[in-house]
Amino acid sequence: MSRYVSYRDFDWVLLGFVLVICGLGVMEIHSATVHTKFAGAHVRQIYWVLGGVGAMFLMSLVSYQALLDQIHWFYIAAVGALMGVLVFGQKYLGARRWIKMPGGNHFQPSEWVKLILILAVAKYFSEMRQRELSWSDFMKAGAIVGIPMLMVLAQPDLGTALTYVPIAVIGVFLGGLQWKQGMVVALLAAVAVGAVFFTPRVHLLKTYQKQRLTSFIDPELDPQGSGYQVEQSKIAVGSGGLWGGKGSQTHGAFLPVPQTDFIFAAFAEEHGFVGALGILLLYFIVLMRLTQNAQTAPDRAGTFVVMGVVAVLSFHILVNVGMVVGFMPVTGIPLPLMSYGGSSVLFMFLALGMVMNVRMRRFVN
Amino acid sequence: MVARDDKVSAIRLTAAQYVILGIFLVLAYGLWRLQVMQSDFYSLAAEKNRIRNVPVLAPRGKILDREGRTIVDNYPSFSALMMRDSSRDLAADVNLIAQGLHLDPDEVRSRIRHFASMPQYQPIFLKEDITPDELQFIEAHRNELPELDTIMSHRRLYPRNGFMAHLIGYVGEVSEDMLNQPQFELYNAGDVVGISGVERQYNTLLMGQNGSRQALVDSHGREVGRLGETEAVPGKQLRLTVDIDLQIAAEEALAGKNGAIVAMDPRTGEILAMVSGPTFDPNDFAVHVSRDQWNKLVTDPDKPLMNKAIQAQLAPGSTFKIIMAVAGWQEGIAQTLHVNCTGSAEFYGRRFGCWVKGGHGAVDLEKAIYQSCDVFFYTLAEKLGIDRIAKYATDLGLGQKTGIDLPNEVNGIMPSEEWKIRNFKQKWFAGETISVGIGQGAVAITPVQLLRAISAISMGGRMVVPHVINPTDVPPGYVEAQHYTEVKNVTIDPNGWNFITDAMSRVLLPEGTAPSAHVPGIDIAGKTGSAQIVSLATRARFKNSDDLAQNGWFVGFTPRRNPDIVVCVLFQGGEHGKLAARLATQVIKAYVDKQRRTPTKMVEKPKNNSDGAVDIGGLWTAPDSDGGEEKLQGGRFVLDLPKKPLALATAAPGMAVR
Questions:
Q1: Which of B23, B26, B42 comes nearest A235 by C-beta?
Q2: Per the structure, how many domains does chain A have?
Q3: Is the pLDDT of residue B57 over 80?
Q4: pLDDT tens string B166-187
Q5: Interface test with A, best of B6, B13, B34, B218 (most A CBs within 10 A)
Q6: B30 vs A176: CB contact, 8 Å cut-off?
Q7: What percent of chain A has pLDDT over 70?
């Protein structure tokens, strides 16, 4: 069926904006780590980005439709890997999230499961024919995302587990969610969140998770404890002012992990409101460009794939920047494309590779 | 393959775009709020984060004796810290650390757990005041255990075994209560201040002024730069009037006993020695006193924390007879009073016994003093009446604070008719006056009060203020010290005090009450006292328990005319004043021995006298200050001095010169 797939149809504009964001990220990683034991991280980040771009091109060559045809095998493999983590995983800081690979590398499957879930949800909804979502469709879609999510929660890794939620949400929303269903789900979610929060005897959340959440609600209550990170982040962002400042929060190491989770705070401190708003604008352009690609996708499945990527990226930005400005609790979710870290960079570029894949096949048929 | 109407709803895709736009607007608002609206607030917070005022601690002033010998010093004390930002697995090192620092591993583990939620830059204090071998352990494991670190501070080093503990006092962290008092308003929590004794009295001089350094720090508290520094002003060195050699003699005399010894120069009021027993070791408080240890000290019936020299309020017993004699002489009664002591006498229908059951026979004032005849003083008390006794006793400072420069001195009680009505709403019974005549009844005084009164009598009525530091040594602005040089004159007929002190000098002679305390070659005038705590009948009921034993007193001075030392001894449970007198003469002997070997006095030694024999009479009695050569009944005599010089202390015990 494939006619001719050309890199003329590759979204060079999108890639350009993405690389600008990555470049700013590398710059900020350098600035935040230059006098610390993490010095040189920016060079490694450049390698990750280059590797990511390569992976993206490879990904764009494999037809997403072929991937969707085999998705059940991928899905089984993903669940198996998560099971493996629970059984054989390395325990570090009280959680099993990594599998030790030969050669000393650590593999965190929960990151890659996101990609598979995007495809799995796209596959499910692309095969759905009716316009409106039935309750059983709803449940099945929920189960596709819910099973791996519960396994990640058991590691425990609340942050990553939460990033699976937008995949399901965008799926059911575009798949034809009815108002009535939306209301019911919203209500159930509210009740669930309330129960977790306000019933101390239900140990659904680990203590550190609860601390993070409560310290988020009032960080000044315990500035030395778990509210410390939120408070330091707000000080960093706030002291940046309109045009940016010295960056004493970042360079004095008051800001925790300024090269990963709090890179946006570090950038906002050094480049001020103008710089931070510029970053947000870049992300917004990228997201709009992605939704445009979703609209021009050759089929239903393609739209779902691209919108899945949009949902995950939006959610990451919302939670990470929201945390940095004090709107969201500390969940350990990095800012895609900017934060230092191989898994995060590779995931984003593979996801973009799928988007390119869809775009390049928009005239195919 | 896929129909056009199978496309995803365009409306929903647009809706998703609007949701994304909404999210970005909210995030942009969050940035606006922090970076534009509250920018000033957070800039200030960032500055506060970055700049830390690090106190530069001022070393506390040393305390020296009158000759400049060290009594209290400072020493560098190290505390072991565990830094938690060294990215080490602390739990794995716990056993080694606990072993090296002699700590309980479980205790260390629980400490680490306790700190888990604290910010990383806060270190854990593992152990204060570590020993040299523990310090060595940390130094030797710098590479293996990089999380261990030490911090140095200056701590107070006090003499060993509670030497002089009550006079010196001790320091501690300023308490919440103290911070609320006006005199501590300039202090901060965590400041080390004097809690008792000289440390407290002269805290403002000793403490100095902490400096501060504005340091640029990172989140680990590491200094990365410096903005400015105000230097610390070290505390002033304080020289006491105490003579360590004399203090050692007094400490040795009172060792293991319950009571107090105070020695003073009656001409100036300089305290030469002050001991209270039992004592405590202030070094135990310098680091950390355990609750058990503290409770033991507080509940001990012998009250080791109390400075009995200024805080014990007890009946003076027969020592009070000297005050009675002065009162009687001044009123013109005592010099002509003659009493026939039959062992007891009846006053106001009640029989009062003399301590000599068989009686003293015919007694005049002189014999009444050196034999301590109770019946004579009963009679004198009856004739004087309580208010006249109270007038002279009060003039001589009994029942009032002496004004000594030590904290928490107590008043004591000198009863009078007015006192009885004020405190008991009762009339004074004439019978009570009789007991007061021999220093019993309601009279309660402190050793330092008695010392000051007898000192005044020995100096012909010249009352000085006892003090432990030389007023000329303090800075000119220190007004608190000005009254130490104040002198009050009490009128005493010269014939009277000559007569009384002559009688006192016979107390240590064979005919007196304390012949066993006699020291050949030293002319001591004094008075013994044995004060009952309960009546003799009550004591018998308790099978003469030691807890109810009488208190022995002695107060004496030397030489008889123009004395240069007066000593007061309280020997609780000492039964008889002659035992107290022996303690006093030990101190006096140490003083005289030291005086006689002082090089400045030695120049008077005849050059041709090569065998070391020294004529004493002109040695330590200033020629022109003598009240009359003929009165010096001790006479002149020759004393063989040992060839070896007297071993004098170079510092207080435990304060070896380093």
A1: B42
A2: 1
A3: no
A4: 999 998 877 777 777 776 666 7
A5: B34
A6: no
A7: 84
Give me the mean pLDDT over the A116-138 stretch: 85
Contact A242 B35 (CB under 8 A): yes
Nearest to B30 among A300, A314, A327 (CB): A327
d(CA B552, CA B574): 5
B21 and A284 in contact by Cβ < 8 A?
yes
Bridge-based pairing state of the strands B238-239 and B63-64: parallel
Is A215's pLDDT higher than 60? no
Interface contact B28-A280, CB threshold 8 A: yes
The parent domain of residue A175 ranges over 12-360
Can you count the helices (H) and strands (E) in chain B? 24, 23
Does the residue A4 lie in any domain? no
Confidence bin at B506 (pLDDT 50/70/90): very high
Instruction: Judge if ipTM > 0.85.
Output: yes
Cβ <8 Å between A300 and B17 = no
Residues of A in contact with B2 (CB under 8 A): 298-300
Is the residue at A330 inside a domain? yes
Q: Is residue A231 part of a domain?
A: yes
pLDDT over 90 (residue B495): yes
d(CA B564, CA B265) in angstroms, rounded, equals 5
Q: Does the beta-carbon distance from B30 to A321 stay under 8 Å?
A: yes
pLDDT in tens, A275-301: 999 999 999 999 999 999 998 888 888
**Concatenated DSSP letters of A145-195:** HHHHHHHHHTTT-HHHHHHHHHHHHHHHHHTT--HHHHHHHHHHHHHHHHH
Strand bridging mode B211-217 / B51-56: antiparallel
Give the mean model confidence (pLDDT) for residues A4-33. 88
From the list B31, B49, B219, the residue facing A325 with the nearest CB is B31
Residue A40 counted as domain residue: yes
Of A211, A232, A276, the CB nearest to B35: A276
User: Chain B window 506-565: which residues touch A at a Cβ cutoff of 8 Å?
Assistant: none
**Interface contact flag, A242 B45, Cβ < 8 Å:** no
Q: How many residues does chain A have?
A: 365
Summarize pLDDT for A324-362 with one digit per residue, the tens.
998 888 777 889 999 998 888 999 999 999 999 898 887
Q: Is the peptide bond before B559 cis (omega within 30 degrees of 0)?
A: yes
* Contact flag B12-A173 (C-beta cutoff 8 Å): yes
The percent helix, strand, coil of chain A (3-state, each to 5) is 70, 5, 30
